[in-house]
Amino acid sequence: MRKLLTTSLLVSALFALTSVESSKAQGNAGTGKYAAVNGLNLYYEVHGTGQPLILLHGGLGGVVEFSQLLPALAQSRQVIAVELQGHGHTADIDRPLSFESMADDIAALIKLLELESADVLGYSLGGGVALNLAIHHPEVVRKLVLISTAFSFDGWYAENQAGMASMNEEAAQYMLQTPMYQYYASVAPKPEDWAKFVAKLGKLLGTPYNYSADVAKIKTPTLIIAGDADAVRQSHELELFTLLGGAKAPGGFMDDGSQQTPQFALLPGTTHYNILSRANLIVPLVTPFLDSAVKS
């Protein structure tokens, strides 16, 4: 039981939200909407105007995760913050959770909103969804930002793999005092489905996957951001950077700037748990990357 408690708390930390109190400071009341896509009533919020940017949260999280990033990003663009299948305001449906199906939902949302394309920023679970969106629906993704994202299961440290694999209905009971449950209970259409949903998400997160072959084919301009003490191994993030075409040749005066190469940033003093609170480091990286022209 102690081991179960330890691993469940590890999972809680792994997908930690900022305090639920931060959602009050965010001032998002009245901005929520629902889109009927793929049999799902997908919750999203729209903030600001300009080039659209879609935000995709981590596992067991929601829009509240971006409370420190969203206001700054919305100053210069239209931010569309989504809550994925079964998360937050979006009720679960009788469909397995998968990165691919959630990516299909986001592609359907982009088309429903009549957007030609959108920039997409995904964190952790949301990063996996964003990655699959670029793989399966590249035509709707203008630029991609991946924060603390693993393209394969072995990208996570072993203890994190064990924590994700331990997510089941019993483990869910140990999460009732966490910010994740507090947020879920305050906004979910059926809060009583918490344990069932945790187990369903655990089945997804604990099942090995590897998208390396598909990642190598991605042409979408991509920015990778990770913490120097992340739950995703640094070597894995560097491999992701390489698969996307980075680190192929030295830059410098021989670089004519004609190639659209990926970018990679490692944030100092940053973990998987607090990376979204590093707005002072993330916004200066994301804004110029998204503002730059897409090279043909």
Secondary-structure map:
Layout: H1 2-14, H2 21-26, E1 32-37, E2 40-47, E3 52-56, H3 70-73, E4 78-83, H4 99-112, E5 118-123, H5 125-136, E6 141-147, H6 158-165, H7 169-173, H8 179-187, H9 194-205, H10 212-215, E7 222-229, H11 234-243, E8 263-271, H12 279-291
Parallel strand pairs: 3-4, 3-5, 5-6, 6-7, 7-8
Antiparallel strand pairs: 1-2, 2-4
Helix pairs in contact: 1-6, 4-5
In short:
The protein is built from twelve helices and eight strands.
The CATH fourth-level homologous superfamily? Alpha/Beta hydrolase fold, catalytic domain
Q: At CATH's second level, what is the architecture?
A: 3-Layer(aba) Sandwich
In round numbers, the mean pLDDT is 89
CATH class: Alpha Beta
> What is the tally of helical segments?
12
Q: Ranges with pLDDT <50 over ≥5 residues?
A: 1-30
Q: Beta-strand percentage?
A: 15-25%
Order the strands across the largest sheet as they lie in space.
Answer: 1-2-4-3-5-6-7-8
Radius of gyration: 18 Å
Class by SSE composition: alpha/beta
Q: How far is the N terminus from the C terminus?
A: 56 Å
Helix content: 25-40%
- List the helices and strands in order: HHEEEHEHEHEHHHHHEHEH
